[in-house]
Amino acid sequence: MKLRALLLPILALCLGLVACGPPGSEKPGGLAVGDDAYSFSLSDSTGRKMSLKDVKPGWSLLLVYYRGHWCEACRNQMLDLKEDFEKFSQLQTAIACISVEDVATSAEFNASWRFPFPILSDPSLRSMDAYGFRHEKGHEGKDISKPGIVIVGPDKKVIYKYLGHSPVDLPTNQQLLDFLRDRLAATKR
C-alpha cells in the first residue's frame, strides 16, 4: 500500500511531463497546419480592405497576431519585423499584423512607427477565432488576441502556426526566416 501511495504521484508527474511539449507546440483550437487558411477581409490602418486574395501569387503570408499598440513586447516584435522586412520579402513572404483595435487606433500606431506592412483591424475577432487565438477578457476586461503567428503558403493553406503563452513567447525572426527558407528550398527541389 505504501509503495502504491509513493508510485502514484511519481506516475502522475511522469505523465504530466510527457504531455508537455515545447511551448506553443500543443494543439490549440482553430485551424491547424494543413488546413485551408481563413479567408479574411480586414481594414488596414488607412481604412483600405486587405484580404488573403491580395497576396501576390506564389507568395506566402506571415500573419502576426498582437495584443494591441499598448503592448511593449508586441511593439518590439513589430519593430523587429520592420528591421527584417526585406529579408522576408526576399523569401517571397508578405507580412500583416492583426489586432482587435479599430482603424483609427491602428492609424495612430502606424503613424508613430511607420511599419512597411499592413496593420489590420479585427474588432469582431473572427480571424482570431478562426485560429483559436482569442484571449477572453485579456485586457481591461475586453477580449483581445493572444500572441500568435500563422504562415499561409502560396496555396492558401496554413503551413505554420504558433500560439504564444505570453507576449514574449514567440518565435524569433531568425526562426521564421529559417522555416521559410527551408520551405522555399524544398519546393524548388
Radius of gyration: 19 Å
| CATH class membership | Alpha Beta
Which sequence of strands runs across the widest sheet?
5-4-3-8-9
SS element count, helices = 6
Question: How many distinct beta strands?
Answer: 9
CATH architecture: 3-Layer(aba) Sandwich
Shape: globular
The SSE string, one letter per element, is HEEEHHEHEHEEEEH
Spans of at least 5 consecutive residues whose pLDDT stays below 50 are 1-27
Strand content: 15-25%
**Sheet of most strands:** 5 strands, mixed
Find the CATH topology: Glutaredoxin
State the secondary-structure class.
alpha/beta
How many domains comprise the coordinates? 1
The rounded distance between the terminal residues' Cα atoms is 61 Å
Helicity level, as a percent range?
25-40%
Look at the structure and name the CATH superfamily. Glutaredoxin
Describe this structure in words.
The chain is of the alpha/beta class. The chain has one domain (33-188): Glutaredoxin. The chain contains six helices and nine strands, in the order αβββααβαβαββββα. The chain has a five-stranded mixed sheet. It has a two-stranded antiparallel sheet with strand order 1-2. The radius of gyration is 19 Å and the shape is globular.
